[in-house]
């Protein structure tokens, strides 16, 4: 079944309005709502006194219109009485400043008292709703995140370190604490890496703290997951609403492991992006990342339906964008779309975070657009649900590396996240599907694996990559790979460290150009050519077994190798010793895909996506026009559009923001 829903807050509106809301939802094709994730003060108005009667009444109204429910545990927004009871449960930022009560997510995930209360309210909800067939799932908390530097968190960090290292001697050795005379003789001496220190903390300590804080959120979530699993039937799924590729502070692979389903919050024109040009590639990357967390389809638990911000307003969603973004989510693997929010709230911080309905509760353009899509999903959703995206290319995301680059970016113009995005964009422009994978994932079934800057490198990952190449895979590694071991200490081998034999090169020296500097390259083989330039980082390479593809054509290392290709077993390893501009990344990605035998996607104009989901042996071809102009695409004869229910000509015309889902007309 395909779920098409909204985030609903009946507690914000008079009960006399609920029936009208439910009727309008039903007319728009809504079959599920998420509720309750910010209602702790109403669920538990006094310590230990629970009241779910108001939500029962709201659910009864929704049930009359056939609408199912996902319930959120409300630990993101504690009631004032709990803040008074547990004043030391506050999250402390990296400057040592405690958060004040008044927003949300002010709590420290390590505080035992807060954890106890969070589990208690989750259990109370589960005891009340576990047997209710209207409830199909649970969402833990809301957008977990933010690191804490409180005294209590520091004490918990010491416990985590003891479990990880066993002895202080082992920790001192792994961290290299002899540097600057930081040899610890008691666990309590170890600081947290706040910004109040003069200069910089030990990078090994820093990385472990980021790992620790990620683990604390995984642990905090797990406590609620355990409470729900104990009481709820397996037919009720458990999820959390992630924040896409862009959120960098929690290892999402770890956070996703105990969940039945990954969901995420998709705001293409939220207050994070103050531009009228919304590029589809970063959105697609987030979808691919969420799909990759559990190697299965996902939901979007908050899909943007109107302009969203708190103090100032970004541009309003343009006609067609709501459905376009929702269909893009579906094209990349979503089996459920839940729009945020049903009605724009009249009070509180999010008065200008617009929903499907305006403040006055009237349905206008946005409601009409959602209603139109709801009618389409009611007709075709069963044909889409359960179909899968199949990729021959994997893009590796390492959270250890991500955390380490947050501590030491190496070059002020370098961003690990942007570097990954650049390679994803190169493949996206060619409509090549990509899976985002973790360093410990199985690589069987892929033809091409791209590993941008694997800064923290472990032997197990090298073994996996070596086996992948030896059995015929093509591997692309980029500069700053193999630099550090798991403790964030530079290896004592010639770079790229453990990866050097696989790459067939040694890094003789490296340059970190000034911000904005671009260095000319010369392509010494016709099989791989481009006008691209180097920048941000330049490894000067000495091949051992690899052959040279590209040399620098500028600076004191002009004529020296920049990019190489090594034959290993039945496969190949390309080492890209520089970050490079878009032209270079595009060229190298095209060459690597060709070398690996990866099928090129459909040729489309810039701004038009072609994405395929597979229902068994039947392809479902999504064409999405993200531009403001009519676009023509040659698809060949014999296609039928599921959305319009019309057979198409060999050259289809996509109107601005239009979506088609093409299937063989003979099926």
Brief summary:
By secondary structure, the chain is of the alpha/beta class. The chain contains 17 helices and 27 strands.
Protein described:
This protein has 667 residues and is of the alpha/beta class. The protein has 4 domains: 3-78 and 134-145 and 239-387, TIM Barrel (Alpha-Beta Barrel); 151-205, no CATH class; 393-596, Rossmann fold (3-Layer(aba) Sandwich); 608-664, Immunoglobulin-like, CATH 2.60.40. Helix content is 31%, strand content 21%. The chain has 17 helices and 27 strands. The strands form 5 sheets. It has a 9-stranded mixed sheet with strand order 11-10-12-13-20-19-18-15-16, sandwiched between helices. Strands 1-2-3-4-5-6-7-8 form an 8-stranded parallel beta barrel, surrounded by 5 helices. The protein has a 6-stranded antiparallel sheet with strand order 9-21-22-27-24-25. Helix 8 packs across helix 13 (399-407). The longest helix is centred in the first third of the chain and has 29 residues, at 203-231. It is globular and about 75 Å long.
């Amino acid at each position: 079944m395909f779920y098409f829903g909204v985030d609903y807050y009946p507690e914000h509106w008079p009960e006399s309005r609920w029936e009208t809301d439910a009727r309008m939802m039903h007319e728009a094709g809504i079959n599920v709502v998420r509720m309750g994730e910010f209602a702790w003060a109403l669920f538990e108005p006094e310590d230990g006194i629970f009241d779910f009667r108001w939500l029962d009444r709201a659910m009864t109204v929704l049930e009359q219109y056939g609408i199912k429910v996902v319930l959120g545990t409300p630990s993101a927004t504690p009631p004032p009485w709990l803040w008074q009871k547990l004043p030391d449960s506050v999250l402390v930022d990296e400057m040592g400043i405690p958060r004040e009560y008044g927003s949300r997510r002010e709590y420290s995930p390590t505080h035992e008292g807060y954890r106890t209360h969070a589990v208690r309210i989750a259990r109370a909800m589960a005891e009340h709703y576990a047997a209710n067939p209207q409830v199909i799932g649970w969402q833990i908390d809301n957008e977990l995140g933010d690191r804490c530097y409180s005294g209590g968190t520091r004490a918990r960090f010491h416990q985590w370190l003891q479990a990880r290292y066993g002895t202080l001697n082992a920790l001192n050795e792994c961290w290299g604490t002899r540097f600057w005379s930081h040899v610890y003789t008691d666990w309590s001496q170890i600081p947290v890496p706040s910004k109040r220190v003069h200069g910089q903390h030990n990078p090994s300590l820093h990385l472990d703290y980021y790992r620790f804080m990620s683990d604390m959120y995984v642990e905090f979530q797990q406590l609620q997951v355990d409470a729900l699993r104990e009481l709820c039937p397996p037919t009720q799924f458990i999820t959390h609403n992630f924040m896409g590729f862009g959120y960098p502070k929690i290892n999402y692979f770890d956070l996703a492991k105990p969940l039945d389903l990954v969901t995420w919050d998709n705001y293409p024109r939220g207050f994070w992006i103050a531009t009228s040009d919304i590029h589809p590639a970063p959105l697609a990357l987030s979808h691919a990342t969420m799909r990759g967390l559990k190697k299965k389809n996902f939901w979007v638990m908050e899909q943007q339906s109107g302009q969203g911000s708190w103090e100032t307003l970004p541009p309003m969603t343009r006609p067609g964008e709501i459905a376009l973004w929702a269909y893009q989510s579906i094209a990349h693997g979503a089996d459920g779309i839940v729009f945020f929010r049903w009605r724009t709230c009249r009070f509180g911080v999010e008065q200008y975070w617009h929903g499907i309905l305006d403040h006055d509760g009237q349905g206008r353009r946005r409601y009409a657009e959602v209603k139109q899509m709801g009618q389409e999903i009611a007709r075709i959703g069963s044909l889409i649900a359960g179909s899968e995206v199949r990729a021959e290319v994997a893009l590796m995301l390492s959270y250890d590396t991500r955390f380490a680059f947050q501590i030491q970016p190496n070059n002020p113009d370098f961003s690990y996240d942007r570097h990954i995005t650049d390679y994803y964009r190169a493949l996206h422009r060619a409509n090549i599907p990509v899976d985002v994978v973790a360093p410990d994932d199985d690589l069987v079934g892929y033809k091409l694996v791209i590993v941008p800057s694997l800064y923290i490198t472990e032997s197990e990952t090298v073994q996996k990559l070596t086996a992948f190449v030896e059995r015929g895979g093509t591997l692309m590694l980029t500069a700053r790979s193999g630099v550090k071991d798991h403790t964030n200490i530079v290896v004592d081998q010639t770079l790229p460290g453990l990866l050097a034999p696989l790459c067939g090169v040694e890094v003789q020296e490296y340059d970190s150009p000034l911000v904005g500097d671009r260095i000319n390259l010369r392509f010494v083989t016709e099989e791989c050519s481009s006008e691209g330039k180097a920048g941000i980082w330049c490894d000067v390479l000495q091949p051992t077994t690899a052959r040279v593809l590209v040399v620098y054509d500028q600076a004191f290392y002009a004529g020296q190798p920049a990019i190489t290709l090594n034959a290993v077993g039945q496969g190949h390893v390309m080492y890209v010793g520089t970050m490079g501009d878009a032209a270079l990344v595009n060229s190298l990605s095209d060459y690597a895909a060709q070398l690996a035998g990866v099928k090129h996607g459909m040729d489309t104009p810039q701004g038009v996506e072609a994405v395929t989901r597979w229902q068994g042996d039947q392809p479902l071809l999504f064409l999405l026009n993200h531009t403001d102009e009519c676009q023509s695409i040659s698809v060949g004869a014999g296609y039928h559009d599921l959305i319009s229910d019309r057979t198409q000509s060999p050259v289809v015309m996509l109107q601005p923001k239009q979506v088609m889902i093409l299937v063989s007309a003979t099926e």
